[in-house]
Design a protein that fits this description.
The protein has helices spanning 2-27, 34-41, 45-48, 55-71, 84-99, 109-113, 119-145, 154-171, 180-195. By secondary structure, it is mostly helical.
């Protein structure tokens, strides 16, 4: 029975996060109230406090979870000495799939709402972003060292690749003219054209 309660709590916590993502994007974080979130979830506002101490904690949980889902699967690439081309493609694949996955509704909350976190919580999110950058820089440097990529500023290159991926949230629709797998390959090939010697 205890396991059922934990699962139920997890489902309700997930529902709150999912509904909040959409509201934060559509109305803005500041304009979204706990009452708005509760209404979307079919709860009384007081019920949300059983799962989150504040609206800021909800935003923090959304941003942290997404960054961890992007960064954790690619951590091993920072020190992996194998093919930088396949490493770059894997980084792009993971980032695209998370960006266009179930959290797509959050759109660009990282860009627009990060400022609403406390300094301590903002640092947690920015540290995860720094982890992503460090891994990406390592891949690009490895490619340069192996002669696969031309000498370049790897920070600018990675920022451009990540920006391409993040902005797909605004326009990509898999029903229209390409699948997510097609998009991953297109971004990878597009990046290679800029990186290759």
């Amino acid at each position: 029975m205890a396991g059922t309660g934990v699962r139920e709590n997890g489902k309700q916590r997930r529902l709150i996060m999912e509904k909040s993502q959409v509201l934060f994007w559509e109305k803005g974080y500041a304009e979204t109230s706990m009452k708005d979130i509760a209404n979307e979830c079919g709860f009384r506002p007081a019920n949300i406090y059983n799962f989150f101490a504040s609206k800021e904690e909800i935003l923090f949980s959304i941003l942290k979870e997404e960054m961890e889902e992007i960064v954790n699967p690619i951590r091993f690439l920072e020190y992996e000495e194998n093919d930088p081309l396949q490493q770059l493609r894997f980084l792009i694949e993971i980032h695209v799939k998370i960006t266009l996955g179930e959290k797509r509704a959050s759109k660009l909350l990282f860009d627009t709402e990060l400022r609403n976190l406390s300094a301590e919580r903002r640092k947690v999110i920015l540290d995860l972003r720094d982890d992503y950058n460090r891994i990406g820089y390592a891949i690009l440097k490895r490619g340069i060292h192996k002669g696969l990529f031309k000498a370049m500023d790897e920070k600018i290159a990675l920022n451009l690749i990540a920006s391409m991926i993040v902005r797909t949230r605004l326009w990509f629709s898999p029903e229209d003219w390409m699948t997510i797998e097609d998009l991953i390959e297109f971004i990878f090939q597009f990046a290679l054209k800029g990186l290759s010697r």
